[in-house]
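Chapter summary example.
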Amino acid sequence: MSPASRAESAATRDRLLEAAERLFAERGADAVSMREIARSAGARNVIAGQYWFGDKAGLIRALLNKHTPEVEARRHALLDAYESTSGAGGLHMLVAALVHPLGAKLDQGIAGAGYLRTVSDLLTRPVPSVIEPLGSDDPGGSLRRWSALVEPLLAPDAVAMHRRFLTVRFVVVEVALRSQSGKTDHALFLSHLIDVAAGQLTAPLSESTLRLRRQRLSQANVQS
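The structure predicted for these 224 residues follows.
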């Protein structure tokens, strides 16, 4: 393949990703077909998406891979700053490390909006997909590091009830919704989101929840 042909092929792939970002931002990943993406990208072949990405899952993976390194770098830098205080920054500093790398996407137009809505869609499916959008299987990933730093600050029962995942999903969904709002000044929104997410992480479990949890554990022990 000549250099010109390689450049044209790379440009086609980039256009497909850009079209996916735009359409996913507008309608959500599950509502858009690969053929629609190819047509929107101006591809001469309506199966160009399959050629480059195999299927929609492959395209979504490529979209996430395009944005994830920036999110990871930002979050690791914020976690480095937290650890440099020996934890003196407290829970709000840790929650800010969760929120701000996603909040930065709000200033990246339709590309950022497409990424945010895609992650939100994956996390709010009946069976949430967490490995690809969150990198939860990566031992060196920023979210696994964040989760480990947050755990000692939470009650053991809150940890067992997946409070961290619920908070991550809440933050992702709220930032994704914000990306659809048309608003451009996000400082107050992000600051308040940090407050609410911190409160969600540390909210005490009610006596009713604790009682039901004990019953569930007791039933599980009997069945085993």
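To summarize the output: Residues 139 and 145 are 8 Å apart (CA to CA).
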